[in-house]
Amino acid sequence: MGERIISPCVGLCSTTLGDPVCRGCQRVDSEIRDWPALSCEQRQRRMLELDRLRSEVAGRFLEVVDPASLEAQLRRHRIRFRDAQPLLSRAVELLRVGRGRIRDLSCYGLAGHEGEDAVTLHERITADLLDAAERRRALISDPLDLTTREP
Prior knowledge:
Structural class: mainly alpha
Strand content: under 5%
Shape: globular
Low-confidence stretches: none
């Protein structure tokens, strides 16, 4: 049996609309195209990079104050996450899916640094994620290598 192909895809691929970086998963268009050809190690490395990026960006705007509540809400709303996925990366997914329905972040185990609502947090995090992914895109020399080069 072949190895399972993990993917950060969230079913919201904006590269089909011409975006060079997907608004859903923050991969560049060549990464999405070449994902099935990557080794398990390459895919895992990229997943870790995406988790680090999401955690770093989300950490500028919010914090996880109750990990158990966050996980319970992810399960309740059937938002997929990985066991090894950092909490802030999970929070990004929760905001992506539930931003319009979340009234009280504390019920979801989250707290915004500036008291912003879920919609505003999602907008700010998404904008920073896309900026960072676009900068990363400019540094990728070989899509199958997926290692970024220092400017």
